[in-house]
Specification:
Largest sheet of chain A: 9 strands, mixed
Largest interface: A-B, 28 and 25 residues
CATH superfamily of the domain at 7-241 in chain A: Ribokinase
CATH topology of the domain at 7-241 in chain A: UDP-N-acetylmuramoyl-L-alanine:D-glutamate ligase
Strand content of chain A: 25-35%
Oligomer: homohexamer
Radius of gyration of chain A: 19 Å
CATH class of the domain at 7-241 in chain A: Alpha Beta
Shape of chain A: globular
Number of strands of chain A: 14
Order of helices and strands of chain A: EEEHEHEEEHHEHHEHHEHHEEEHHHE
Distance between the termini of chain A: 23 Å
Helix content of chain A: 25-40%
Chain lengths: ~350, ~350, ~350, ~350, ~350, ~350
C-alpha cells in the first residue's frame, strides 16, 4: 500500500469521450433511453490516481458547448484538476455501448472521429504551463493513433516531462482500427513515445510493432524476451508490465499480470473474476494502481499484486473510471459482503 | 450456417401479446412501474427468422385501438411483414411477468382470454392473400388451444400452405391451462395439425396426446420411439425435434436437443447456461434457428447444433423476441467479452 | 379533410438524425441519462403523411452499425417504407437537446457532420428504383446544405420525380450554420431546387436568397410580393406557403399561415398555443398536413387551416415526428379533455 | 370544514381497476414503460374519505393472483379497510391511459370486461358482514352497468344499508359504452338504485334516463326542475348534486357545482383551473368532500363550496385517488407556493 | 409447514427506517436518484410473519410528517397491523445503501440517530392496549442499543407479554456501533431482555456478552456449550438458535443454522447461495420462518430446515422485507425456473 | 452586465444539504424513488457566482462518509473551490421535497438537525487559511440559526473578512423554525452580523428584529424607512436590498426588487413568471446576480434589474443551484424559444 507522503502531482494527456450506454442488458436504443458516462484511457488512469489520493490533472481539449461543459463538470466531480483543459473547435468524441451477457459479448460502436481533441493543432498546447509542477505523466497509444497532431503533441509532452525530471508512463494500447491508413508510420511514432517512457504497459505483440522480435507464441516467454530486448534498446525504461485476460464470456474471466524490470521478471495472479459488472476501464485501473504503488516505493511484487487486485475490483464498478481506494483492496480479499 | 441464397418467404399465424414486466428483480407492481414487450410463440419465431435474414410475415388479429397500434409498430420495428395483420374486435391479450432470481422461479400471470385473435371467426381470414408467395408456414399448439375458431383457422392455414407446396412447421407447445374444458378434443385437433406438418417440435409426452404410445420415462428412448411411431402415422413429416431443459434455478440451466428424421436420430448439446438473462422465447429462438438451417439445406447435425446455440444466445437477450444473427453464433462459442 | 381515395405514394429524401434529449426540464447530462428519438425534417414529413394514411417512403443513408439498425427499426415503427434506405459509410448524425422552460429557450447542440447521408456520393443513389411508383416527392433545403453530393442528389431526385409526373414539394428551411463556407453558392443551388418544385414552403426572406427582391419588412406584404415574383420566374410552381411564429417564450406562442397561388393569397390563423410540449417538428407537421390536403383536392382555405391546426396539435406531442390523424383535428378544436 | 367527532364508518361497493399510464406526455407504449395506479369510482371516493379522516371500507372482488395482491396492498396503503375484499375468479379490470396536452385530449382505452368483480354472482356477497357497523354506503352507476349480477348486488347492498339506517349516496356516473346491449333496462335498474339513495350525484340528463322530464337545454334550470321532479318521486332523497365542467383543453378548465335539497337550490363556483395535472378522479373527490361535509352537519353552502375546492385540489394530484386533507383547502385558497 | 389453524396474533416492537439505495450497482448518488424501501429488524420479522399468514402488528413511533405517513402506508401495504403506531417528535431514521458486487462489499451509511422512535420516552407507550390479544412478541437487541428509553420500553413490553402468557422471541442482533458510549451497560440490559425470552436468536459470542463463557473458537462447540449455560441461567428459555454465514463475496455465500433446546442440539444446512440479489433482511426472514414453524408445533428439525430455506429464498428478493409464502419453499427446492 | 476584468475571489460559509425530491408531481415516496440534488442558501450563491464567471469557494463541513463524498463531488461539478471543505463528525443535513402544482403548495420536510456543519466547534475553522485571498464573503442568517457555534463562526468569518478588506454580503434569511428555543438571542446575534455587512439582503420585517422600527404595513415605505434607520446604525452598510414575491399558486408569480443605498432607493420589476419550474434557490440566484453586478461596478439600476432577471430565469431551472450566465439574461428578455 502506498505511503501518502509520496503524493504524486500526476498529469495525463488524452481524449475524453462521452459514453452512451443502453440500460441494463438491453440492446442499443430499444427503450428510448441511454445512460451516460465520461471516460477515456488516460482520464481513467487520472481518476484512478485521484481515488488513490494523488493530485491528478487531465490535459485535454473539449468542445466549447454544453457537452463539453458537462464533461468538464464530471471530471471535476471525479476530483481531477481541470485547470489545463482547453476548449476548442470540433465535436465531443463519443461511443455507444451495450452490455453483453453470458457469452454474448458487449458491443461498442465508436463515434470519436473529428473530436476537438483530435483536431487540436500540436502548437495549441502550452506544455510549460500544463506540466508545471508535474512529477508523473501518463500517456497512451491511443493519442498518437488519433492523428499526426495528437501524436506530435504526445511526444512534445513526454519530452517536456522528462526534461523536468518527471516519470513518464506509457500504455501501448494498440488499436488497429484507429491506425487505419496510417499503419505504416505507427511503429515509428510509437517507438518514439516508448523511448520517453520510464514505465511501459505493453505485451510482446505490442513491442513487436516497434522493434524486430521473434515471438514463439508462448505468452510468458515472449513477454520476458521482448522486455529484455526493450530494455536493451530504450535506456530510460525501468519497468515493462502486461496483463493477460482469459475470457469465458462476459461474466467469468481470469486476470494475470507480469512485470519486467532490469532485475528480472515477476508475476501476479491469477485473479478469478465471477459476476463481472463492467469490463471497461480495467486496464486503466491496473495502470493507476501500479503507478501509485511504484511511486510510493512499494516493492515490485506487492505493487504488481495490488495493482492486479485493483483491476479486479474495478470489474465490480460500473462506468469507465476507477474509484478504488486502498482500503478496498483488503475488503475485496476478505470477501466480506457488507460494510456498515 | 445458412446460405442466404435460400431466403425464405416465411409466415407465422398466431396471437401476439403485450407483456408487462416488473423492473429488475422486483415483484409485480412494487414500484408503480412496468416494462413492456410484445411477444407470442409464433411472432417470436418470425422475429427470429427476420433477424436471420428471412422475410417473415405475421398473420394475426389485433384490437383496433392504441394498444393494437403500438403492437403493430413493434412488429414492424422487428422487421416483420405486417401487411396481413387484421384489426378486429376484442382486447389485446397480455401477460404480467416478474423475473425470478436464484432458485426462486419467475412468475407469469396470463390475461389473454377474449383477445381479438381468439375471437376472430375462422371465416375472417383470407388465406389466399395472407399466404400468397409464402414457402414456409409456422404454427404452434397454442393457437388451437385458444378456441374452436382459431383451431379451425390454423388448420385452414396449414392445409392451404401445403396445397401451395410450402413447408409447415408445427410447435406442439401444449399448455394444459389453455385447454381447460376442451381437454377431450385436444388430441384430435392437434393430431390434424400434426398431420399437415413437415417439421414438428414435440416431446414424446406431446405425441402421446395424439396417438397411443408406451412411454418408459427414459427421455431419449421415449423420444426416439415416439418419433418412429409418428413417422409411421404421418406421411408428410420430415423431422421431429425436441429440446430438453434441466433447471438448477433461474440462473443455471442445461439445454440439449434431439432431432429425428426418417434416417435416424441425432443429438446436440449439452449447452450449459450460466447467468441467464431471459428464459422466455428460448424455444421459439430454437425453432427459428432450425427452420433457418433446414431451409438452407444445412446438414441435420450442424442445423441442430446451431439452433441449440441460437437458443442459448437467446437466454442472454431480454424480451420475448430473438435478435440473434448468424455472426452471433461464432462469437458466443468464442466467449469473447467485447466486440468493438 | 382529405379523401382517402387519393392515397399518395409519397417519398422523401433527406437525413435522419438521432436526437439525445435531457429528461424533463433538466440541463444536458445532469442526471446521467438521455432520452432518444429519431427525426429529420424530411422523415418527419413522411411520418406525418403516414399518420394521415398515405404510403410514405424514406430515402436516406444510414451507417451500417447498431445505431443505424435502431434508426431503421424506428422508421419502420412509424409506418414508413424503408425499402430504399441505404446502409453506407459514415456516422449517424445526431443532435443533443435540452428543453427550455418559461422564457428560457430550448438548447440544441448539433453533431451531424460526417454523417453517412452527407458522405454518400451522388452516384450512389438509384433514383429509378427509389422513386418507382412515387407520385409525390418532398425535399428540404437542409439536404443541399449538407454538401455538394447531397445537393446534387436532391436535384437528381427532383428532376427524376418531375419526369415521371410526380409533384415535388420543397421546404426552403434555410440554415445559415450549415451553409458556412458555401454561402456563395447557396442561392444558385437552392434556386435550381425551387425550379423543380410544385409546392414551395418559404418566406420572403428565403426567396430573396435566390432572386432579387425588394423587401419592406412588412411580413405579409413581403410574402405576397415575393410569391408573385416567384410565380413569374418558376413556371412549375403552384403554391407557395409560409408560417409565422411569434414566441413569448417556450410555453406560449402564436402561429399563422399564408398560402399564395396563381389565383391569389389566403391566410389562416392565428392559432394561439399555450402549454407547448414540443416545438421541434412543427413546421414538418404543417408540411405533411398541407401535402395531404392539397393531394386530396381540398380547397386551399380548408387545406391551409387544417394544416395549421395539425401544426398546432404537433406542439402537444413529444418527439420530432407527427402522429396526428384527421380525427385529431376536430378533437383539438373542440378542446375536449378526455377521449375514452 | 367537517367536525371529526362525526367520523363516518363508510363503505363503498364497486370495481377497482389497474391503470396503466404512459409516462409524461408520451403516447402509449412509445418508450417501453408504463406507470401504474389503482382506481375506480367508488374506491376513489373511499380513499378521499379516508384522507379526510373517516373509516372507509372497500367492498370489492379481486382476482386471486399477484395483480390482485398488489391491488389489495395499494388499497391498504391508501388507508382503506380491506377486510371485506373478496378474492374470486376472473381477471383484474384495467385501463390504459395516455395524458393529453394542450387541447389534445387524454386517451383512455378500457380493458375491464370479464373482471373478477363483474363475474361475481350476486349471492356471493355477504352483506350482513360487509356492511356491519357501516353508517354510510356509496355506490355508483358504473356497477350496475357491469352486468346483471353486479346490478343486483348493488341493489342488495343499498337496501341492506337503508335497513340498518345508513345513508346511501349514489353517483349516477352514466357510461353509455358500458350499457351497450343493455340500454333498454338501464333506466329501470338505475331508478331502483336512485330510490335507495339519500344523496344523489346526477345531472338533469341523467335523471331523464329514469323518469320523464322535459329539458330545455339550459343547464341550471334543467337541473333545478329535474331535481324537483326527483324529490317528488323519490321519498328518501335528501340532496341532489351536480358539477359542471367547461373545458378549454387539458390544461384550463372551469368547475361549478349545484346542490338541490327540499329547501331549494344553491350553487358554488366557478373554480378556474390552470395547469391541470390530472383530471381523473375529480368527480370522486367532489363526492368524498361532499359526503364528509354533509355527514359533519356542515351547512349546505359551505359543504358545496368546500367539496368543489377539494375537487379543484384533486386536479393538482396525479393518480386516481384523492389525498386532500382539510388543511389543504385553506392552503389552496391562499395560493401559497411553498409549505415548509 | 405451519398449520394455519394456529394463526398467531404477533406483535413486534422496534424502529422502522427509510432505506435510500443507489440504483443497480451504482455508487451512492452517482446518477441523482435513490430507490426507497422501508425496513427494520423487527418490522421485517412482522412482514415475514404476515406473508406466512399470521396477524402481525408493528408497535413503533414515526415522525408526524409526510415521511412518517409514507412509512405507515408501506407497513399497511405489507399487510401489517398499524393500529398501534404512534406519531411523535423526532425524525425518521434512515440509512443509505449501495449494493456491492463480486467481492466488493455492499456499503451502508446509517443515519438513524435522533429518530422519533429513539426519542420516545418509555412512559409514552401504552402496553395494555398495544399488546392486547397478542400471543407472540418479537424484539431485537437493536432497540435497547438506541438509548435508555427504548431499552426500558423493550423490557416493559417483554414483561407485559410474558405476564399475559405470550411467547417472547429476542434476536440478540448486537451492533457495537450503536452501543458506543454505553458499552458498559450493554451486558446487563441485554441480559434482562434475554431473561424474558422463550426463543433466543444469538451466537456464542453474543451470549458471552451477558454471562461468563469460555469460548474455544470452534463455532459449533461454542454455540452448544454457551446454549447449555444459557438454559441453566434463564429458566424461561425454550430454544436458542443461530445462523452461520460464510461469504465468498456478495454473490456466493453459504448458510447454516443450529438450534439448541433443552433436549439437545440440531443443525440445518448448508444452503449454498449463488447469484444473491439482496442480503439485507435475511436473518429477519429466518426469524419469521422459525417463529411460524415453532408456533405451529412443527418438529424442530423441520422448523429449522424450513426457516433456513426461507432465509435462502429471501436472498433472491430485493428490499428489507420478507414476502416468502409457504408454497415458495417447495418451489425453491425444486429449482424450477418459471411459474405460470 | 458585469465586466469580467473584476473577477471576484468570493467565498461563502454555510451548510450544504442533500435534497431528496419526489419525481414529477408525485407526493413523497409514492413510487419508491427519489431524485437528489445538493443545495444550501450560501452554496447556491456560490454556484451562481461561479456560473457568472467568478471564483467561488465553499467553506463548509461535510460528514466523512459516502454522502459527504458525493456532496463534495457535486460542489466540484458546479465549478466551486472546495479546498476548504472540512470533513467532520455529524450527519449530512437533508430535506425532503415534493413539488406542488396549481395552487397546491410544494412541501418541504427538513431533516437537518445534528449535521456535521452545525456540530462543528467554532474553533474548528481556520479563517486565515479559508479566507486567504478572498475579496467577497457571503453569509446568511441560516448559519447563526443552526446553533451557537455556527453563529460564532459566522461572526469570526465576517470580522476576518472585513479586516482583510473584503466586502461582506449577508442575507437575513430569517427562519423562525430554526430559531425555536433561541428566539430571545436571535436579534442580538443577527445584529452583530449585520454590523459586519457591506451588502444586506433583508426586508423591513427582518430589520425590525434587530432594531426598533415602526412599520406601517406598506411594503415599500416600510423598506425605505427601515433601510434609512439601518444606514444610520450600521456604518459599514453600503446597500440594502429586498425582493417581493406575490404568489398566485405554484405556477404564476410576480417578483419585484428594491435597493436602498445612502443615495436613495430604486426599484426593479415586476417580473411576471408563468409556468414556474422551480422556486427553490430563487433568492440565492438574485443575491449572486446582485453581487456579480455590484462587484463589477455596474450602476445600481442595471444591477438590480439584471439580478431580478437572473432570479426569474432561475425559476425555469430545476434544482437548488443557479446556472444562469450573462448571455441568458438577454435570451430570456427576447423570449426566443430555441437556441441552436
Amino acid at each position: 500500500m502506498s505511503d501518502m507522503k509520496t503524493r504524486l502531482n500526476a498529469a495525463v494527456f488524452g481524449e475524453v469521450m462521452l459514453r452512451l450506454s443502453a440500460p441494463g442488458r438491453e440492446p442499443l436504443l430499444r427503450s428510448a433511453r441511454l445512460e451516460t458516462w465520461f471516460g477515456g484511457a488516460e482520464a481513467n488512469v487520472a481518476a484512478g490516481l485521484a481515488a488513490l489520493g494523488h493530485s491528478a490533472r487531465v490535459i485535454t481539449a473539449l468542445p466549447d458547448n454544453a457537452i463539453g461543459d458537462a464533461c468538464l463538470g464530471e471530471l471535476r466531480r471525479s476530483g481531477l484538476d481541470t485547470t489545463h483543459v482547453v476548449r476548442s473547435n470540433g465535436r465531443m468524441g463519443l461511443y455507444f455501448h451495450a452490455s453483453g451477457a453470458m457469452q454474448r459479448p458487449a458491443e461498442i460502436v465508436y463515434d470519436r472521429a473529428h473530436s476537438a481533441f483530435s483536431l487540436m493543432p500540436h502548437e495549441g498546447w502550452n506544455w510549460d504551463a500544463a506540466l508545471d509542477g508535474v512529477d508523473w505523466l501518463h500517456l497512451s497509444g491511443i493519442t498518437p493513433a488519433l492523428g499526426a497532431a495528437p501524436a506530435r503533441a504526445a511526444l512534445d509532452a513526454a519530452q517536456r516531462a522528462r526534461e523536468q525530471g518527471a516519470k513518464v508512463s506509457f500504455d501501448f494500447n494498440f488499436r488497429p482500427m484507429l491506425w487505419q491508413g496510417r499503419e505504416a508510420e505507427a511503429g515509428a511514432i510509437l517507438g518514439e513515445l516508448v523511448a520517453q517512457a520510464t514505465l511501459l504497459f505493453s505485451s510482446a505483440g505490442d513491442l513487436a510493432r516497434i522493434m524486430p522480435l521473434e515471438l514463439t507464441g508462448r505468452r510468458e516467454a515472449d513477454f520476458d524476451s521482448s522486455a529484455k530486448a526493450a530494455f536493451a534498446r530504450f535506456a530510460g525504461l525501468e519497468c515493462i508490465v502486461t496483463t493477460f485476460r482469459q475470457s469465458r464470456g462476459t461474466l467469468e474471466q481470469t486476470l494475470e499480470a507480469r512485470l519486467a524490470s532490469r532485475d528480472g521478471v515477476i508475476a501476479a495472479g491469477p485473479e478469478t473474476l465471477a459476476g463481472i459488472v463492467e469490463r471497461i476501464g480495467g486496464g486503466d485501473a491496473f495502470a493507476a494502481g501500479l503507478i501509485d504503488a511504484l511511486a510510493s516505493g512499494t516493492d515490485h511484487q506487492t505493487a504488481l499484486t495490488d495493482a492486479l487486485t485493483i483491476m479486479a475490483v474495478k470489474h465490480s464498478i460500473p462506468g469507465d473510471q476507477c474509484t478504488v481506494r486502498h482500503s478496498d483492496i483488503a475488503a475485496w480479499r476478505e470477501g466480506s459482503d457488507l460494510k456498515r
